[in-house]
Write a structure and sequence with these properties.
The protein has about 200 residues and is mainly alpha-helical. The protein contains five helices and four strands, in the order E-E-H-H-H-H-E-E-H. A two-stranded antiparallel sheet has the order 1-2. It has a two-stranded antiparallel sheet with strand order 3-4.
Length: about 200
């Protein structure tokens, strides 16, 4: 009795053998020349790509909020320094605000890193974020604490921004900025891990 291989079947007449080449894989038909052994690798690559896209999207949103904060603070400093309006309307900036203007540095490097998956720029962005974003905010919290304490205990304020106590406004800015920068650094670290993993996968292949 003649046997046929799993990839071959006999015709109904039994006189000719029809060879059927199957190209099945878990994902459906695969390209000729592959045996499906690279399926897991391709799945990992797709997963890394999707995660990278999602993280980039979150970082871009945070960068936009960071930009808005920076622009508003720069506008306050410009209006105050050029005396465009009375200091009773827009108070002069606190000391911590000036070093915070350098937070434009990590912002620029972050924007530059995302389109081309530039690891070096992303690392620079993360390090400079700690120096130029987080550090000035910590200093600002300490600088304004006595003023906030005086406002809380005695209800007295000497600096105002459009009628609101400047210390209250700037503490609100700090609260928002801290969250923005914390998430920026967190998502950047996750994205960096994804890029490193993808690089290692390519080297192995």
């Amino acid at each position: 009795m003649t046997q046929c291989s799993p990839a071959s079947v006999w015709s109904p007449t039994g006189t000719a053998m029809l060879k059927i080449t199957t190209m099945a894989s878990r994902a459906g038909p695969r390209a000729a020349g592959t045996d499906g052994s690279d399926f897991q690798h391709r799945e990992r690559v797709a997963s890394h790509y999707q995660m990278s896209v999602a993280l980039k999207s979150e970082i871009r949103k945070l960068n936009i909020v960071h930009t808005l904060i920076w622009v508003l603070m720069a506008a306050q400093a410009t209006v105050s320094q050029l005396s465009l309006v009375s200091h009773k309307v827009v108070a002069s900036p606190y000391q911590w605000e000036y070093p915070y203007f350098l937070s434009i540095v990590p912002l620029v490097f972050s924007f530059l890193a995302l389109p081309r998956n530039n690891i070096s720029y992303l690392v620079i962005s993360m390090i400079s974020a700690g120096l130029f974003c987080v550090a000035p905010l910590i200093y600002g919290t300490m600088e304004m604490f006595p003023v906030a304490q005086q406002l809380y205990r005695h209800g007295k304020a000497y600096r105002f921004i459009f009628g609101f106590p400047a210390v209250t406004v700037m503490y609100l800015v700090i609260v928002i900025a801290v969250q923005v920068h914390a998430w920026q650094i967190y998502y950047s670290k996750k994205l960096l891990d994804q890029w490193f993993t993808s690089t290692q996968e390519k080297k192995k292949k």
